[in-house]
Structure formats: structure tokens, C-alpha cells
């Protein structure tokens, strides 16, 4: 199951999904609430995105699943792996901005300003993916930022419950992953490998070949 980030939709995974299908895999690509073809709602709490993904797994009768999540999708798939460890065979988290662990921390990103390629992607997104841009419920943006700024100790405590081998993909200076928090996350999980890239926040888009080379072997291909 491939889960997109905030502001996108399932079509962001088309290229990678084709590779998985060629290898005989069944691929499920949902649109998160407030995105794509899914309904808008009044609430956009991070655990709710995960609960939606888990309900989908249950409705489809999945007994074992590999989960890949980008950014906001990383919150969703990690929540599923915490709540139902036995369901998740392999877990891939791409550039999930890690939350605060306590009220004493300051919210920091690796860099403040977007790169020229990121600006280009942003300014042309309406032309490239008008469906995703137009369907996105912009009201969730402020709600997401508010959650990023608040401590989320329950998420940190839940990391120890994840039993699936986990691959965390982080970008370079243009990414949104705090290195210190990432090291704490890696140390908190039974089996977590970190793979670093030189691009920004969207590795599967901007460094697709490198993304594929890291993720496919991890998934067993």
C-alpha cells in the first residue's frame, strides 16, 4: 500500500506502482481524507489518517501488507504499524517531518528556504497535477502545522511497538526531517535503517531511480 503526502494524491505513486505490478505485487493506492477522490471532513488529526488506512486494510481483508508512506503518509503508515504490528510486513517512511517529543523542544527544519527545483515543482504543480491541487482541502494546512508545533509523545512511545523492519528515507538540506529527532527515532525502534539522499522533501519524485534502488530490494525485489 502506497500512501501519499499532504497536498497530493495517489497518482504520485504511478511510476513506482508500475514497477511493483511488473514484479507481481498487488498494489493499493488510497487517497487520504481531504485529498483526491476522498471526502473532505471536519477533522484532520494525524491519528485519523492512520485509522482510515487501517480500516481500509481491514475492509480489504489484508492479513499482511507492506506500507510505504511519504510525509503525512508517513504518519498514517507508522500509526498502523504501531496499532497492528502483526499486520505490517515491511514499513517504508519517506521524509516524514518528525513531531516534538516534549514541550521543551523548538520546531526546527534542516533548512528554511525552498530550493530552485522545489520552487519550480511548486509553481508548475497546478499544470502537472490539477486534479490533486483542486481536490485538496486547504483547511487542513493550518491544522497540520498546529499539530507539528505541539508535542506528540504518544507517537514517540508507540515506536517501540513497531515490529516490522523499517526503512526511513530522509532528504538532504532541502528535506524536512530533523537529524537529531531521526536518530532518536532510529534508536527507539527494534529494526530501523536510515537511508539519506541529497534532494529535498519528495525523494520518490526528484530522485526516483535512487528511491527505487533503495526501496525495491528492501521490499524483496
From TrEMBL:
Molecular function GO terms recorded: hydrolase activity
UniProt keyword Hydrolase, yes or no: yes
Keywords (A to Z) from UniProt: Hydrolase
Domain AB hydrolase-1: from-to ranges: 2-96
InterPro entries: AB_hydrolase_1, AB_hydrolase_fold, Carboxylesterase_BioH
Pfam families: Abhydrolase_1 (PF00561)
Protein name: Alpha/beta hydrolase
Native source organism of the sequence: Nocardia acididurans
Amino acid at each position: 500500500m502506497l500512501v501519499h503526502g499532504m497536498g497530493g494524491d495517489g497518482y504520485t505513486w504511478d511510476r513506482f506502482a508500475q514497477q511493483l505490478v511488473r514484479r507481481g505485487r498487488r498494489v493499493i493506492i488510497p487517497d487520504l481524507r481531504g485529498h483526491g477522490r476522498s471526502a473532505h471532513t471536519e477533522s484532520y488529526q494525524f491519528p485519523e489518517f492512520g485509522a482510515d488506512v487501517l480500516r481500509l486494510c481491514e475492509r480489504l481483508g489484508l492479513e499482511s501488507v507492506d506500507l510505504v508512506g511519504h510525509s503525512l503518509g508517513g504518519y498514517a503508515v507508522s500509526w498502523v504499524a504501531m496499532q497492528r504490528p502483526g499486520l505490517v510486513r515491511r514499513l517504508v517512511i519517506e521524509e516524514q517531518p518528525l513531531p516534538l517529543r516534549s514541550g521543551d523542544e523548538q520546531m526546527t527544519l534542516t533548512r528554511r528556504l525552498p530550493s530552485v527545483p522545489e520552487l519550480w515543482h511548486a509553481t508548475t504543480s497546478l499544470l502537472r497535477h490539477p486534479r490533486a491541487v483542486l481536490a485538496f482541502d486547504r483547511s487542513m494546512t493550518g491544522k497540520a502545522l498546529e499539530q507539528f508545533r505541539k508535542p506528540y509523545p504518544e507517537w514517540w512511545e508507540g515506536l517501540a511497538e513497531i515490529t516490522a523492519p523499517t526503512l526511513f528515507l530522509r532528504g538532504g538540506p532541502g528535506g524536512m526531517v530533523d537529524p537529531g529527532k531521526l536518530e532518536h527515532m532510529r534508536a527507539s525502534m527494534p529494526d530501523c535503517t536510515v537511508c539519506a539522499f541529497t534532494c529535498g522533501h519528495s525523494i520518490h519524485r526528484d530522485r526516483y531511480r535512487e528511491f527505487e534502488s533503495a526501496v525495491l530490494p528492501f521490499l524483496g525485489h
